Amino acid sequence: MEAIKDKYQKKNYEQSQDIKKFVSELKSVQSEMQVLLKNQHEMQVQNRQLETQVEAERRQRQQLENKCQELEKTVKHLKKYKVETEQKLKEASIESKQITTSLEEAHRWFKYKFDSLQPELVKNHQPKNHEENSSKKEAKKASTFISKKEAKKIGAKATRASHSHLPGQQGKDPRPPAHHQEGPRELGRK
């Protein structure tokens, strides 16, 4: 009987030890589960943060790609505008050179004409001036010996004589006919 009792107690003790061990292991597993759950929660939070960050980076990347495309279009447009502007400047430069050449040619032509006409003008004006000067000198000399009235007559004759040397004016009175002379009144009426 004692032997059975001892055996039973021993068995109970072993079972209680097994139960304690099992409870201890169960607590350990529960602790590990809690740690795992905590870690899982933290991982989920981190994943959500990473997803948010990735989404933000994706949006930013998309914005940068769009901006890059716009800049490429702008660069392409500016290159085209630059080519057109350079072409227009080239055309304007050619046109400016042509205008400069034309102006230089016109200047040379006018200078040539002026230089060629200058001697003729000097030649045409010299006799007239010489005759007028000599006529005035004669009138001045005569006025010292005659009256003023007679001096005016001589001066008028000398002027008519000088005008008679002009082509188509020989023997004509240099003054225009009376009906061509217009006074201030006639001019005001027209």
TrEMBL record:
Residues 33-95 form a coiled coil. Residues 128-153, 172-190 have a biased composition (Basic and acidic residues). Keywords: Coiled coil. Transmembrane segments: none annotated. It comes from the Eukaryota. Residues 154-163 have a biased composition (Basic residues). Residues 121-190 are annotated as: Disordered. InterPro entries: CCDC150 (IPR038807). This is Uncharacterized protein. It comes from Accipiter nisus (Eurasian sparrowhawk).
